[in-house]
Amino acid sequence: MKKWIYLFVGCLLLFNKSVYAVDPDLDWKTIESEHLYVHYAEGNKALAERALTIAEKAHLRLTKELDWYPIEKTHIVLSDETDQPNGFAFPVFFNRTVIFLAPPTSVNTLEDFDDWMTTLIVHEYTHIIHLDKSAGSPESLRNYFGRFLFLFPNLFQPSWVIEGLATHKETDEKRGVGRGQSAMFASMMRAEVAKGLQPISHVNFPVATWPAGTTRYLYGVYFMKFISEVYGEDKLQLWIEKYSNNLFPFFINTNANKTLGKNLMPLWSEYQQWLRGKFQPQIEDITAKGIVAGKQFSKEAYRTGSVQSIATAKGEEVYFVQNSGYKRSHLMHVDTKGNRKVLADLNNGAGLDLHAKAGLLLTQNEFCNYFTIYSDIYHYDVKNNKLQRLTECGRFLSARWMPDGEQIMAVHHEAGKFELQLLDKKAAFKENLWQAKRGEILGQIDVSPDGRSVVASLWRKGDGWNIERFDIASKHWTKLTRGVSIAANPQYTANGDILFSMEVNDVYNLHQYKTDTGDVTQLTNLIGGAFQSSQATTDGPIYYAGYSAEGFAIYKLELDDTEKKAIDIVELLDDTIITEPFTLTEDHLQIFDYTITPHKQRDYGAWSSLRPRWWFPTFEFSDQRSQYGVQTAGSDALAIHNYFLAANYDSKLEKPAASLSYSYASRYFLSYTRLNEIFLDIDGNLNSVSGRDVVSAAFALHDRKIQNQSDFLFSIIYDKTANNELINGSVNIESFEDHLLGFAWLYNSADFNPLSISLNDGMNVRLVAEDSDLLGSDFAGQIYTLDWRQYIRTGRESTIALRFVQGWGSDQPRPFRLGGEGANQDTLEVLLNGASSEGVFDRRKYALRGYKEGQPQLIGRRAQLLSAEWRIPIQRIERGVMTPPVGITQWFGSIFAETGSAYRNSPDTYYSSAGIEVTADINVFYNLLLRTRVGYAHGFDSDIGEDRLYLKVGSSF
């Protein structure tokens, strides 16, 4: 009944997903230049001025290089709603990019830059120019239809092309910046070459197996470099030019043939050979010197990291953060006997510190409000097995115990500004020890065993990332390394020496700095890399986070098993390690001193960007209807206001129809829909045409955490159907009203992990109360619905899924209906990448496999349903073809049984069934996921049960 309303709400969710709404409660401001608008929250004008200057320079460079000049100004949104470095760009409804103000603070593939905002803006502005670019038919049609989605040819190609080009443009070999020349990307590609390079049939599609989301950047940027070196930069530009002329998308093979003289398959083979020629000699050189590596200590690799070891009376214990890709990150404990235990579920990216008496200190991301996710400090009480959040919206990126266990040293961040703060043991502020200058970045820290100093990875303008030591008493920094080789992850040992990771010859290896002599020892010699580390006792084993082709894992390095060699500092490290005060040498990064011209600030106004930027005709023809219409949608630059408009005229019925919908920041939803419904007599002839008006208003309150989410929804719906045309001799039917007042609580703690086949490790609950009496509906009474879904892990991937539905109606409400195999996903759900757009309110239909829909035995004012499934993995494939662009991510099987009853007062008969399903995650158009299931269900009831075969798009539940 309310499908149009929920379709609209889903569209708004899609818009929000695509363009990212910022916090509407902030005081937003705008400055403007010749080609740009920059929107920012009050207090960040200096950053906005700098971003504007950088983006104008990027505009001049990239428009020339890509030969495209946008007609309208680009909107840049500076967002401080996260502590994670990133950004994104999208060309519909206008050119818009969101820039997160948080810079990288660790080696995470983004660490190689000489000015972070410059690198980020160049990358995102490349997307703007590239994705906006069109030629030929697409460009001509934009003059008529505006910025319609399918008139952006460069959107419709594999993401490795899009991200590869942007990463190629961010990279500057001479300046030594960008991922295309970084040691981290070199390490990752070396590992790929050593293991075996991925085919294009794999890289073309979104993949979850390692390197997961980085795959498109890694293979993409090296492909662009390959084309540039082998065929010339002009051929790369021709590639872009030719594809921008595609009215019909996805012809990447044809485009490659036109520009490079061969299809992508042979070209990819040539590219793979180029990669082997580039990286195999590096592998051989490293191997010839002797691989020095620890043994893998964590059982699985993916995003496992952050390790701490401690010496106890019984021996050595180890704590680390495990993330295998199959389940949530979790805190692992390995006791002195090697027994492993999961202590607590964590959020991704958690960092650890350990104190013998005070326990574990963690930093991890968590929701501050619906729009912001910040890093907070947590305490894990080892004795009581309790994880406690110490700060709310604290924005502490790194935290370490002081030796007494009564105080905490922490790195605080806000809008790109860093501070070193001293906190008490409850993480309450005590003292600000040091404040970084604008542009300085404070990364990982550790406190010396005597509590007198802090060692840190610190980025300074011109110097890059180096290890520095901070004397707490004098509040003075002393450099321990210098030069452009990135040094990170410093960690004190028990005797006061310092372990750290540093790139030398494109490899991150583990090093040890002797504080008494200044001597440095390289501890590992790896093909991949070694990063954060921990050593509990002098000369004891070192545990470190290491990289391989399977991802990050924890390794154990026994020093007795390796020969430590003192490094020839001058020859190998280019005078990187120093024990004297730093003096600038020729080995430094380019210093950017932009000339910034002040711009007049004004309050942000949504109206200027809200106007419709595209329209498209709609048609529907049948023996009963001939509808012609138009539709459009829009959003403001901050994605706070979103709307959808559609209007049509039925020439056979000679009547108009329309749909108008609006949402504000995922809080308020309004819609109006006018429909023309046709009613036939018993002979199938037209009896009447009724006009149906549906007005809806909804309000949402959100309580979000990363591991569980609660939503409270309030809705009022006015729905009236009235005859507006009677055929001669037809009987007039009185108007029908179906008004509804509803409240719902939605709760979700289930998790879908990158390598999962199903939701698992949690529940999904929908509790709804609806009333038809208060608004004078033709239906009467109240409806209460509980829909409980529980997901229980039975193996690494296998899951038992349980569902219980209880619908309870009083008086004469709209009845519940059981039967069928569930509705197919519509186009909206496809765009939502497989997410369910099931309505919250007025839901009366529930699948009962093995039985047809609409049978009177399965209709009643009350209903119960119980389902159970065992979902079993079959194979993860992650392969596809280019023409047409279709691939299979994975497929799995399900065995199910269910029973249900629909009744008036109490259930008389339960109708049961069982069956099997095979589900495949099919990827179409390189980015859209369709979960498709083929099933057989047997209904056990002898009267209405059937053997049913079916094909459906969408999950069962």
Report on this structure:
The protein is α+β, with helices and mostly antiparallel strands. The protein folds into 4 domains: 21-133, Zincin-like (2-Layer Sandwich); 155-288, Neutral Protease, domain 2 (Orthogonal Bundle); 295-302 and 351-572, TolB, C-terminal domain (Neuraminidase, 6 Propeller), CATH 2.120.10.30; 751-957, membrane protein fhac: a member of the omp85/tpsb transporter family (Porin), CATH 2.40.160. It contains 14 helices and 51 strands. The strands form 9 sheets. It has a 17-stranded antiparallel β-sheet that branches. A 6-stranded mixed β-sheet has the order 4-5-3-2-1-31, covered by helices on one side. The protein has a 5-stranded antiparallel β-sheet with strand order 23-24-25-26-30. α2 (45-66) packs across α3 and α6 (183-195) crosses α11. The longest helix has 25 residues, at 264-288. It is globular. Residues 1-19, 565-586 and 826-837 have low confidence and may be disordered.
Name the features.
957 residues; 4 domains; single chain; 17-stranded antiparallel beta sheet; TolB protein, periplasmic protein involved in the tonb-independent uptake of group A colicins; 18% helix; Zincin-like; disordered N terminus; globular; alpha+beta; 14 helices; Neuraminidase; Neutral Protease, domain 2; 6-blade_b-propeller_TolB-like
